[in-house]
Amino acid sequence: MFRSLYHQGFARVAACTLPVALAEPAVNAQRILDAATACTEDGSALCVFPELGICGYTLEDLLQQEVLLTQTKTALLSLVQASTSLHSVMVVGAPLLWENALYNCAVVIHSGRILGIVPKSYIPNYREFYEARHFRPGAGIRGQTIDINGHIVPFGVDLLFEADDVPSFCLSVEICEDMWVPIPPSTHAALAGATIIANLSASDITVGKAETRNMLCQSLSARNIAAYLYAAAGEGESTTDLAWDGQTAIFENGTLLASSDRFPSGTTTVMADVDLTLLRQERLRMGSFADGAYQADTTPWRRISFTLSPPSANLGLRRPLSRFPFVPSAPERLAQDCFEAFTIQVSALKQRLKTSGVKTMVIGISGGLDSTHALLVAVRAADELGWPRSAVRGYTMPGFGTTDKTLASANALMVQLNIMHETLDIRPAAELMLQTIRHPYAEGQPIHDITFENVQAGLRTDFLFRLANQHQGLVIGTGDLSELALGWCTYGVGDQMAHYNVNAGLPKTLIQHLIRWCIASGHFSASVGTVLKDVLATEISPELIPAGENGPQSTESIIGPYALHDFALFYILRYGFSPSRIAFLAEQAWQDTTIGHWPPGFPTSEYKSYDLPTIRHWLEIFVRRFFATSQFKRSAMPNGPKVMPGGSLSPRGDWRAPSDGNARLWLEDLKHNVPQV
Ligand SMILES: Nc1ncnc2c1ncn2[C@@H]1O[C@H](COP(=O)(O)OP(=O)(O)OC[C@H]2O[C@@H]([n+]3cccc(C(=O)O)c3)[C@H](O)[C@@H]2O)[C@@H](O)[C@H]1O
Ligand SMILES: Nc1ncnc2c1ncn2[C@@H]1O[C@H](COP(=O)(O)OP(=O)(O)OP(=O)(O)O)[C@@H](O)[C@H]1O
Ligand SMILES: NC(=O)CC[C@H](N)C(=O)O
């Protein structure tokens, strides 16, 4: 069950376009059945077909021919009968008579039963469209039924189709023009609970129109916090005066999950696993979504319940899934994100520098990633404010674990950036403190415990704050979002504290890309770029204890890979996913180095895969640290800007949680819901 996408709160859905045989309902019904069967075999719970797909959209006055309407119903019923063996819901377009008029309808079929029929609300009758000649608008039809050869079926625009065995699977349907109006029916349906919206379309293609359709689908999926499936008619529709491109796409909450080539020949299906848990979480977070529901149309909805019985096998996961949720892998997107992140940091710092009346910035430079990046931000802020570079005061403070390599990088960086720089050896002060508190290290014992580490981190901070007093400056913090998530910093008198922390909103996995972007940005000289490349090549280490036989203290060998921690952080912070679900996603994303994309510039030597036991192990550590032991460090964190949409950990900027919480529920979830092997 763990590896079943349905068990994990996803639903596989499909949008199909296929060649239509004009005015041949039996042929079309068979083609639709074949496509739906293939989708079912692929594990799909829903297949959406084009508008009027059972007979063709471009029939004009043939739509009013008795024989066509009769044969349409017959074909529809044969499809219903044949659907008995399919677990997938089919949504099929058909012209149907109700009372005294014809309606352009979507027929929702499941396992031998028509669940309901939704008429098109808005009938286009402008430019190339003449639908009002044949159809009446369905808008306002609620609470009605329709007789389909003796079967009495719910009929109206007030229908929601809910699977009683797949949480949050709630389908609503609209038809083509319905999405082009200011307030589409799907908006009301989403406010009433629909999470999946199907659009059956027949939209002639003209130059540039495909982008407009994408924009409409994407924005509807974002506004409605829903999945939006679009299936348009293509091959076989009459080209008397128009052409057809068979566009199909699936969007979820503003993101494109899948789309097909346009102008296809033959049956074309796009399939994606929509994340129902994500949609539910996103709606509950954005309270304004629910507020919209209170103000919406109060007319009651009819909720048609059915049992989907989806497959429970391991069907993989078909949706874009990044190894690094904070780092896009498309080069242009990554460059844009880096530009924005850096600009946010610089502009936030400039504002604080302008209003606090200080004259300098004071920063501890270790030769590691975080302080290097914070220094680049500080230098850029100084440049933009017209301050001399000497207003940036960098101090490198070697301690017991500092290596020659990082010390050299720190000095080279400060020299090349032409800032005021100095080396302050903290060892005498650290030894004095260890001696004063009677730490065994002072008596010659090789005890490198937390006290030993924090004495150094604390003294560095102490020096920086006093230097800031002395030079009318602000201490620029360097600790990143991932360290805050893990509580991987020394509290109070330590690197947890600063006057202003420019890095607090930056996940560790993004920082290397930001530094690469800075090298390429033209803001800094080529010689600075050379040092930055050295910094990028250095393993992440706090360097608080002396290097052993195997080299300097390695952060990731102690607390785990930041790649996995940032993966967990993103999904916990942004969507509140359970640890077991995060383990499922992490396995999908990280099980094989050859699957999916790696961000540009990420060294191939660092390509890694993680199996489930490894993921589980580090996730347990993350969960324990995040929920139980580190919130008190975040509750008292200094000011600094939120940078990522994924979230910030400032108790004022975003995440609020008790400092005396515990991790029990999350650990239990991991224990019970993730297999041991
Ligand atoms: N809920 C709570 N509310 C208030 N106070 C609480 C608390 N829980 C513990 N405490 C207190 O806080 C203490 C623990 O916090 P703290 O003093 O910070 O110490 P601690 O978190 O134990 O140690 C800091 C860790 O961060 C690592 N570090 C430090 C500096 C830089 C880097 C880096 O690579 O970036 C890493 C370092 O290697 C060490 O493992 C406890 O001993 C206790 O006194
Ligand atoms: N040798 C040092 N000299 C000056 N400042 C230091 C030194 N070591 C640590 N610091 C300060 O303490 C902060 C935390 O140290 P830490 O080693 O975690 O960070 P880092 O080296 O900048 O980056 P990373 O966490 O990626 O190694 C640094 O960012 C820096 O401001
Ligand atoms: N069939 C329709 O409702 C088509 C109308 C819609 N405005 C389009 O051009 O796609």
TrEMBL record:
Annotated ATP binding sites: 364-371, 478
The protein's enzyme class: ligase
Binding site for L-glutamine: 126, 203, 209
Active site: 51, 120, 176
GO CC field: cytoplasm
Keyword NAD among UniProt keywords: yes
GO biological process: NAD+ biosynthetic process
Catalytic reaction(s) noted: deamido-NAD(+) + L-glutamine + ATP + H2O = L-glutamate + AMP + diphosphate + NAD(+) + H(+)
Keywords, comma-separated and alphabetical: ATP-binding, Ligase, NAD, Nucleotide-binding
InterPro entries cross-referenced by the UniProt entry: C-N_Hydrolase, C-N_Hydrolase_sf, Gln-dep_NAD_synthase, NAD+_synth_C, NAD/GMP_synthase, NAD_synthase, Rossmann-like_a/b/a_fold
Listed Gene3D superfamilies: Carbon-nitrogen hydrolase, Glutamine-dependent NAD+ synthetase, C-terminal domain, HUPs
Pathways involved: Cofactor biosynthesis; NAD(+) biosynthesis; NAD(+) from deamido-NAD(+) (L-Gln route): step 1/1
Segments crossing the lipid bilayer: none
Coiled coil ranges: none
Pfam family, one: CN_hydrolase
Domain CN hydrolase as annotated: residue spans: 11-276
Enzyme Commission number: 6.3.5.1
A molecular function (GO) term: NAD+ synthase activity
Domain of life: Bacteria
Job of this protein: Catalyzes the ATP-dependent amidation of deamido-NAD to form NAD. Uses L-glutamine as a nitrogen source.
Record protein name field: Glutamine-dependent NAD(+) synthetase
